[in-house]
Amino acid sequence: MLIQWQEQNETDVPADDGWLGSWELATLARMRFARRRAEWRLGRWTAKSVVSAYLRLPATLETLRELEIRSAPSGAPEVFFANGLAGLTLSLSHRSGLAVCAVTRARRLGPALGCDLERIEPHSDLFLADYFTIEEQSLVRDSASGDRCRLVAVLWSAKESLLKALHLGLRVDTCSVNVTLELPPVAGNTGWYPLRVQYAEIRPLCGWWSESAGFVRTLVVVPFLGGISSRTGRFSLARDVLGADHPVESVAGDVMVAGARPPVNIPRKLGPLRGF
Ligand SMILES: CC(C)(COP(=O)(O)OP(=O)(O)OC[C@H]1O[C@@H](n2cnc3c(N)ncnc32)[C@H](O)[C@@H]1OP(=O)(O)O)[C@@H](O)C(=O)NCCC(=O)NCCS
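# coenzyme A complex -> structure
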């Protein structure tokens, strides 16, 4: 599975809207707040850049207009080309003038991707108590005080990535998602590191995290086998995902990541989906 990853910042985004399609222009016109408009345009620009690179599309305005990133009823981004679904799964995140986006090919039953960007910043004890599992809370309590914000950012971001991949978002109690890391994050980490995410009865899912310039990025891959209802926009799991005789590893193999302007030292190969 090749996942294309890209980051862009606000200075990369063209000032005019000539690269937006008609659905996108109509959506933008309904947005009242300048900050939301700017973040949304940055997200769309990053998504179009990453899809163009992945599909090797010609870099013309006409192509960019035909390539639209629309929103499903759940809020999840969907890639359209010439008004038809492009057969891709894409996830994006934008924060403080920076955006990340990941894309790969998808069929009806998967895979699905979730990615997220979080600033490393202090959070209250109440935030930890309300939104993190007991296991995660004790991980944080046992961490070195200098690395605590970093760890909280990775755990939170991984939860968001998983909930994006499942098209659920924060409608779901974040305490129903438990994140474990192979290594505790410490200052000076470079590269991507594996993580695992457990949600409901699904087999543990694999993901990766990385840090640079005060931000944490996470990527979670759901390699199977469910459907996203066009009516509700919710991800429903295929029955055999829950069965023990359908190992995740057999579905997808290794995850390869390619991308322009990736986070520091991004390895081309993130590792096998079996995690750690
Ligand atoms: C998905 C969600 C967790 C992301 O929140 P966030 O950390 O503030 O923002 P991020 O920048 O990381 O991600 C935003 C992007 O996630 C994507 N997204 C939104 N809802 C999503 C969903 N249900 N599944 C997958 N991706 C989703 C969108 O592409 C969105 O960017 P866009 O609106 O510009 O297209 C949050 O928006 C959410 O829970 N949404 C669903 C609940 C909802 O609809 N709330 C309404 C507002 S109260």
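# post-check
Helices lie at 22-29, 34-55, 61-66, 125-131, 134-142, 148-165, 249-252.
The two ends are 18 Å apart (CA to CA).
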